[in-house]
Amino acid sequence: MITKRIIPCLDVRDGRVVKGVNFEGLNDVSSPIELAEYYSKNGADELVFYDITASHENRKLFTDILTEVAKKIFIPLTVGGGINSIDDFDRVLKCGADKVSVNSGAIKDHSLVGAAAKRYGDQCVVLSVDVKRVGGRFKVFLHGGRIETELDALDWIKKCVDEGAGEIVVNSIDTDGVKGGFDLELLEKVCDIVDVPVIASGGAGCIYDYTKLFKAIPKVDAGLAASVFHFGEVDIRELKSVLRSENINVRMI
Fold it and tell me: Quick check: is 252 in a domain?
């Protein structure tokens, strides 16, 4: 039985972890270095580090902070934000990342996913997609949900997996920060069209949301969240204990 992963997400702006609702109204939370170390020691299976304004501000990711985060943890680290080229992949991998998450950079350069997968392997390339319902369709958005594209989210995800993306993070803008549960409709549609790991992101508000997610869509590999972990609303050790009691396979420490 495949082990389900629980993944905290550090949304970093100006060197601090922040969190908002529906990608808006960002508030300061904590130091990314301190939070990363805490999660590494307290049951997280992996960690995601997003420099959330790098693409919007047209700059490189904060590698100094990233390097310090990587030194403090002993779990896999996925890094994204301002990844627009193979050189950007190389730079963050050298800072200690295990996997690289690409979002807007792949839309700007449709060859990036394939080129990165060829050089570093599919397992290193994570496609992160910000998705929102528009006129009954799932559309791809850029720059933290600020800009709507013409891309159909399901078509885009399938194309990138075919080109070598080894993992998909599905960020539902509709449910982000609302704490009403994961976007099960969207996630099920994604799982139906790809055969790589799918990470659910956006909407977790309580432990029940995770049990509902993994039972409703067994193909989902992981649940990612930010504020419920940052503010202590969900304790990862307790979450895993409940999941195990529900016969959902998780790694215990």
Answer: no
